[in-house]
Amino acid sequence: MATQQDKPFRILGLQQIAIGGPDKHKLRTLWVDTLGLTVIGNFVSERENVDEDICALGEGVHKVEVDLMQPIDPDKKPAVHATPLNHVGLWVDDLPKAVEWMNANGVRLAPGGIRPGAAGYDICFIHPKGNEQFPIGGEGVLIELVQAPPEVIAALGGGRQG
After folding, report:
1. Is 134 exposed, middle or buried (0-12, 13-18, 19+ CB in 10 A)?
2. Does the residue 4 lie in any domain?
3. H helix runs in the chain, sequence order
4. pLDDT of residue 161
């Protein structure tokens, strides 16, 4: 098993959780109206079949997004509402190096590669399930890797240790 010193990247902390449901207004009743999170944005993508409200928990580099997602068309894929905990997002200090290392070490990444995410950071996903070629997956959980901006890297200890 590889140690942290063997990896050219570091996972720094939780960036987001994404919760799906058939009606994001019901999700807002809990997360915004009851628990007090603040809606900071909205993201709609026909290609990703999602209409999501981006909410914030905490502030600054310690802010965690809680994305409340509903499908644009409940009969199309991806079915963002089919799994209530849709995915977990993790800050990573060097996304390209992480992807390169994971590809070389049997981690199955979801199709789409590195691309801009809803919050404006580059992202990619670890597939929920491994396969023969890439046996390491999320064990049923979709995991989003999010390129951390410099201020998050500095605050959450992304400095390399030699």
Report:
1. middle
2. no
3. 24-28, 95-104, 150-155
4. 40
> Exposure of 55 by Cβ count < 10 A (0-12 exposed, 13-18 middle, 19+ buried)?
buried
| pLDDT reading at 149 higher than 60 | yes
Gap between the Cα atoms of 17 and 14, Å rounded? 8
pLDDT digits (tens, 9 = 90+) for 122-136: 999 999 999 999 999
Please determine, for residue 162, whether its predicted confidence score (pLDDT) is greater than 60: no
Contact, 64 vs 81, CB < 8 A? no
Place of tokens 């026909």: 46
Q: Does any domain span residue 161?
A: no
Q: Name the one residue in this structure whose structure tokens are 């390209």.
A: 96
pTM of the model: 0.84
Quote the domain boundaries for residue 43.
9-155
Of the candidates 119, 145, 18, the residue with the CA atom closest to the CA atom of residue 78: 18
Query: Does 162 fall in a domain?
Result: no
Query: Rounded to whole angstroms, how far apart are CA atoms 123 and 131?
Result: 22
Instruction: Give the domain CATH number at 135.
Output: 3.10.180.10
